[in-house]
Write a structure and sequence with these properties.
The chain is built from two helices and ten strands. The protein has about 160 residues and is of the alpha+beta class. It has a domain of about 100 residues.
C-alpha cells in the first residue's frame, strides 16, 4: 500500500510504503528493449489516486507500429497498440501523467480480456473432456495430429 501522501513518480523522492516509513526513492525498473525497437515514451510507475508503483510502461516503435512494454511484479508483458501514424499525435497530446494512466488502462483491459478468454477456453475444453467429445486424428503422411471438439448431439424431445 502506497502512503506517499502526494503523487510520486518512481525515481522521485517522497515514496513511502508504510505510514511510519521515512520518505525515500523507489527506483525505476523499466522493461528491456529488443534490437530494432525505438523508445518513444518511458513512463515509470507512480501513484496519485491509485498505487501503481509496480507497473513501468514503455511505448516503442517497431516497423510502423507501436508496442506497449510492461514490467510489473509478475514479470514482463508486450501488447501491440497499433499503427504509429494513427497513435503518434494522440500520445503526443498527453502529458506524462495522462499518458501513464491511459497506458495503465490499456494494459489492464488487455490482461483482463486475456484472462477471461483463457478461462472460457479452459472451461469449454474441460466440459468437452467430461462429455468425451474431444477428437484426436493423426494427419496421414505426417507426424502432426488434429485435435477438435465434436459438437453436442441434441436429441429430439
Amino acid at each position: 500500500m502506497c502512503c506517499c501522501g502526494k503523487p510520486i513518480v518512481n525515481g522521485e523522492f517522497g515514496y513511502k510504503w508504510q505510514p511510519n516509513d521515512a520518505p525515500g526513492v523507489r527506483e525505476s525498473d523499466p522493461p528491456e528493449l529488443r534490437d530494432g525497437e525505438e523508445l518513444i515514451y518511458d513512463e515509470p510507475g507512480r501513484c496519485g489516486g491509485l498505487d501503481s508503483h509496480s507497473h513501468h510502461y514503455r511505448v516503442v516503435a517497431r516497423t510502423g507500429y507501436f508496442e506497449l512494454l510492461v514490467r510489473h511484479g509478475g514479470g514482463d508483458d508486450r501488447v501491440s497498440l497499433g499503427p504509429k501514424k494513427v497513435l503518434a499525435d494522440a500520445f503526443a497530446a498527453l502529458d506524462s501523467t495522462a499518458r501513464y494512466w491511459i497506458l495503465n488502462t490499456i494494459y489492464h483491459a488487455y490482461r483482463d480480456g486475456k484472462r477471461r478468454g483463457t478461462e472460457e477456453s479452459d472451461s469449454r475444453w474441460r466440459q468437452a473432456a467430461a462429455d468425451k467429445r474431444i477428437k484426436v486424428r493423426k494427419v496421414r503422411g505426417s507426424a502432426a495430429v488434429k485435435v477438435s471438439i465434436e459438437s453436442k448431439v441434441l436429441l429430439p424431445a
